[in-house]
Design brief:
The chain is an alpha/beta fold and 238 residues long. The protein is built from ten helices and ten strands. It has helices at residues 43-50, 73-79, 96-102, 110-123, 125-129, 140-152, 170-185, 197-203, 221-226, 228-234, and strands at 3-14, 17-28, 32-36, 58-63, 66-67, 81-84, 158-162, 189-194, 206-211, 214-220. The longest helix has 16 residues, at 170-185. The structure holds adenosine-5'-triphosphate (ATP). InterPro entries: AAA+_ATPase (IPR003593), ABC_branched_ATPase_LivF/BraG (IPR030660), ABC_transporter-like_ATP-bd (IPR003439), ABC_transporter-like_CS (IPR017871), BCAA_Transport_ATP-bd_LivF (IPR052156), P-loop_NTPase (IPR027417).
Length: 238
């Protein structure tokens, strides 16, 4: 299989503090790959570096055959890498439709954009029902759906999702996880950062466990789900 994303010995620092200490992993086309780990493990830092918001201090990133070091964030989006950030970052005063349109800022195929907005409404019907309302009136889970819908509007080759289940009710979380599975079944490649290890590993092809800036364990989703150390540390088992 060809790697869509290849990360080798990636290092990222905030001043003197090294938050990512030489991690390596790959994401093949069509896969869902998850990074799990506790708070502060460096998962968000990794995604922010991949999308060009932070500069790596070392290592190599290759995306769809392009080296990403030094490439500005908007060019990385143009290459096909979209990021649905932690905390959502939707525009609360703009309508739901306007938020989705912003996700297509690099495109000018009006008809294609309209089709993809409709696709977002099909994926998340609540967004369609409330399309003319300010996005700030949506619940947390609905805002998460909007953030995912917006990231999909750039028609990414790789969709990166940072903690999509954060702060959501179990029902909303279930819905988000089902949507991720649905996106995978239509061929979308996904890099998923999650604190909810059970949910993430249940649908991931591969997973990597991060602890204080390092990948300490890698395997298939099912392998990690059944791994004793993972079960103890992340799935709350004795
Ligand atoms: P979380 O789930 O809490 O976001 P995470 O695994 O995504 O955890 P990061 O947010 O990447 O972890 O943080 C990794 C380390 O980098 C932590 O020690 C954190 O305190 C530190 N860090 C993150 N952002 C900054 C920043 N802007 N300045 C300084 N240190 C930071």
């Amino acid at each position: 299989m060809t790697a869509l994303l290849e990360v080798e010995d990636l290092r990222v620092s905030y001043g003197k503090i090294e938050a990512v200490k030489g991690i390596s992993f790959r994401v093949d086309e069509g896969q869902v790959v998850t990074l799990i780990g506790t708070n502060g493990a460096g998962k968000t830092t990794t995604l922010r570096t991949l999308s060009g918001l932070l500069k790596p201090t070392g290592g190599r990133i290759s995306f769809d055959g392009h080296p990403l070091a030094g490439v500005p964030a908007h060019k990385i989006v143009a290459l096909g890498l979209a990021h649905s950030p932690e905390g959502r970052h939707i525009f609360p005063r703009l309508t739901i439709t306007e938020n989705l349109q912003l996700g297509a800022f690099l495109r000018n195929d009006k008809e294609g954009i309209a089709r993809d907005i409709q696709r977002a409404y099909d994926l998340f019907p609540i967004l369609g029902e409330r399309r003319k309302q300010a996005a700030g009136t949506l619940s947390g889970g609905e805002q998460q759906m909007l953030a995912m819908g917006r990231a999909l509007m750039s028609r990414p080759k790789l969709l990166m999702l940072d903690e999509p289940s954060m702060g959501l009710s179990p029902i909303m979380m279930q819905k988000i996880m089902e949507t991720i599975a649905e996106l995978r079944s239509t061929g979308t490649t996904i890099l998923l950062v999650e604190q909810n290890a059970q949910a993430a590993l249940s649908l991931a092809d591969r997973g990597h466990v991060m602890e204080i800036g390092k990948v300490v364990l890698s395997g298939t989703g099912p392998d990690l789900l059944h791994d004793e150390s993972v079960r103890k540390a992340y799935l709350g088992e004795d």
